[in-house]
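Chapter review: from sequence to fold.
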Amino acid sequence: MKSVQSFPIERVVSDGYCIGCGACAVVDDGLSMKLDRYGLFKPEGPFTRVAEANAVCPFSVTCNEDSIGMELFGNDEGIDYDPHVGYYRGVFVGHVSLGKYRDRGGSSGFVTWLLAQLLNRGLIDGVIHLKPSFDAKDALFEYAISSTVEEILAGAKSKYYPSHFDEVVRSIKGNGKRYAFVGVPCYIKAIKLLGKADEVLSSQIAYCIALFCGHMKSVAYSEFIAGQLGIAPERIKAIDFRVKDPTRPANRYSVSVQGEHRGKVVTRTESVSNLYGMDWGLGYFKPKACDWCDDIVGELADVSSGDAWLPGYVKDPGGNNIVIVRSPEIHEIISSGIEHGELSFSNGTVEDVVLSQSGNYRHRREGLGIRIEAAERNKEWYPKKRTALLESTGVTAARRKLYEQRSRMSRMSHDVFLKSGKNPLVFAVKMIPQEIYYYHLSGRLFKGVAKIIVGISRLLYRLVRYRVVS
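The token string follows.
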């Protein structure tokens, strides 16, 4: 076997940059995806086809979203380009008017509606997406195939949970059917790289649909939430990360956990704003790879969709999406949906996308530039990125420290949670000094300390209420 310098995928895994997608396991039979001690999937077993695995890993290849996007969309008529979103044909903002899709979706139900359209029009035979796994011993969700509209609806909503697609992708190869694949941006990139390496898979995965991504989470995130609701990690049966509250804005959703407590199966629901440590900026239980990704919207997908966290939309409890379209076929489907009243969409702009994900762009573009500078100072290997996109010049010293603190808290969260015995109260107390420093750097010290006090008080109240502590 050649040295790790020749095959960066080995560095991706050994240095913690692996996102656990499973692309390497699709092309290398010697690998299988297993959860590590932190609740993140990693390839296990010797690399027997290193070059092939290296070519499909989204964090090891040298080709980036710009070069791949050019191949996919660059020569299409009616296509534009912007460095924030890649190639795009149009941007829309709004929601699905058909009740069952919006009601059962995490946001407006657009992705579910679109998948149903593709299936009903005979453009696909099934959908590869993340679904609840009721019989899996090590994971609450898994990539699986839906072949009916009802199955697609059952797999709706966002899942902030690790996953890998290698088993299902291997299972469809050569069966003569066409599929739509749904995933976060780095997973879409991995699927496109697999398609470049395998014409059969390229022809079978006919459409890719991306979900805007702030960052992914380890299994510990679900365990942390469940623990705050009095359900031990080993007793969790199901979790719904996006429960709408018709009385509150769309970004004030709840989470629902089903599990065993004192010999009974219980379901407990709580507003995310009442739970501790849910500030996405804290980066708790975030994979290291997410700090080394510069694709926020899924630039290689045929269509991308995210929450419309925009003035005029976010207050609507039903939820709205912001949609970036690249495929002419999907653009036609959306136009038809608008014409027939199934979609309540208006035209949007790239500026709307950036505004809806402003903090995300800062951390993943400006912040990434800071992380690259630090890696180079320390002579550390890191995945090759699109340096032209990075905006680290002119960043204040305090802002640099803020990005460094976010990475530090993310790294610490994995170990501290384990050392706390997965006890949410112990974890929260141990992380208080780090959070106070984080809020100081962000200029929100007073509000941050107040938030910590209220959060700890609510957490302790729930643990007493559910008779976890007395």
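Two observations follow directly from the output. Confidence is low (pLDDT under 50) at residues 1-6. Residues 305 and 323 are 5 Å apart (CA to CA).
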